Amino acid sequence: MDQEAVRALFDRQLRREARSWEAGVRLEHVGHVVRRVGPKAGWNGVVWSGFDGLSNAAVDAAVAEQARFFRELGREAEWKTYGHDEPADLGARLAGAGFVAEETETLMIAPTAALATDATPPEGIELLPVTRPDQVGLVERVHDLVFEDCRSSVGHEVRGQLERDPATVPAVVALHGAEPVSAARLELHPGTDFASLWSGGTVPGWRGRGIYRALVAFRARVAAERGFRYLQVDASADSRPILQRLGFTAVGTTTPYVLAAAVTAGRPGSAARGT
What we know:
globular; Aminopeptidase
């Protein structure tokens, strides 16, 4: 895999030319940024910025304008930066405008045809493809147990995917009997070469048993069957070695910068973070 070429394709298709088919969501190309604007229950933020060659003052003005926009809108917003974005000190400029950095992850990409997809779950675990709205609660239950910040919008995202394409498999749940112990989301990007892995989480007590590996393999098979050439994931330090063994390559880093929703009418705004 030509890492530079594939990363450039990712930047173009999923960031600079990003599109959305979700009702109530729009991708706005404003000046040197592309921002995603939707309901509070969904993900809002900046997916791409093209600041290369701009003066420091112009960059700061563009950052301040996006902060002002989302504050006035009453949305929590995430500015998704990548290690190769310009200028090199973009993170510091975002911090100066009120955005708070979260954990840096590794941008990993793999050709779906080259991925190891034969991983199976451990004994006693059954994988359930989420294909109906009444199954989404299983995914949310896992996230309630795994994630502490309560900003996950996974339920909103999965329900939206099922509404747009009832034939899709937007998530998969690992069940021990009737109890969900792990879950993860798959997003297919129509008109692009990419599918993405999101929202993987396993409840304490079930980690380290190969469940995550099986969830990745399952989603990779779905993406390949739907004709997507590449699979992309923002990998945590824990998941990176597993993904590398499955065939993913690290092509960069990504750091989310989050802007809290403005306080309006005496009450804090609330917007769920994208996954």
